[in-house]
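Hi Q.,

Before the meeting this afternoon, I wanted you to have the 6-O-phosphono-beta-D-fructofuranose prediction in hand. No need to reply - just skim if you have a minute. The sequence and ligand are here:
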Amino acid sequence: MAKKVGVLTGGGDCPGLNPAIRGAVMRGLDFGYEMVGLVEGWRGLMEMKTTPLSLEVVDGIISQGGTILGSSRTNPFKSEDTAKVAGENFKKLGLDALIAIGGDDTLGAANKLFKAGFNTVGVPKTMDNDLSCTDYTFGFDSAVSVAVDAIDRLRDTARSHRRIIVVEVMGRHAGWVALWSGIASDADWILIPEVPADMNAMCAHLKGLGNRGKQWGIVVVSEGVVLDPNQADGIEKDDFGNIAHLAGQDLAKTIADYVKQATGIDTRHAVLGHIVRGGSPTIFDRVLGTRVGVKAAEMVEAGDWGKMAALQGNDVVAVPLDKAVGVSKTVPPELYDLAKIFFK
Ligand code: F6P
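Predicted structure with the ligand bound:
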């Protein structure tokens, strides 16, 4: 009988998920597997909601943003009871293996399932690019590309009106999205969670731009920047204990108000939010999603359980989930130093 292999996408969606699903399914079909999608991430396992993943279903999805399987932030290991249901349903669905595509939370759950004795492999994804043991995750390049396009537009209007515009981007507690989009869009200052915000130095610099005839500026800030240690108090958490809506803290507005007050320059703010998570994946993300999806199916064939398909250098390799989950990959100081060269 054909092996039955489940595929799910969990956590925040991002461009590249459909190429990864397609890669896993196409390679799985080579091995004669019956491929089946679990609908809406781990919720699909908890509620036994599945959908067939045939060649016809995945054909042509490489250019589509989002995920054809749907996603959720359901945590199957929220309690002992839910963990038990997850294991039981794995058996009831007759799954021989599961490919879990997701970020730290989804892959953490996949690792627990593996440790509970179930055949599981992981595929890393996140627009935040904060997963350890992989150089890049798909979703990041697409998100940064959209952010840079938006910042280029904001720069036009900032220049016309002689304004400063503070642009907030997502990225959770890692500054990759802010740093990459700030460097690529010639930002005048970038604020990331890894580096304490020096508001005085930033405002002095922004004010000083006028000395070289530049009366406008762009500041890119990551949603994870902490100005006030109490700013997250009382904020709703998700199933995995993360702040449910980091972007809902008025960070960009707070910074814009501060800049206006400190510099006397008219200042506006824009929160890009989920806009950067939609749209067609970039070529980089289509190819990376495809490669890691294919690798995941090959890991199933090899019985390489409890690992994820990671990009290291130019190779896609299997690395233990144990090493990858639980430790966030943050921006190293030397990359922020690179950005600072351009704060002139
Ligand atoms: O982890 C991806 C991400 O887009 C983060 O950058 C952001 O903080 C979070 O998801 C937003 O989550 P949600 O879509 O649940 O609002």
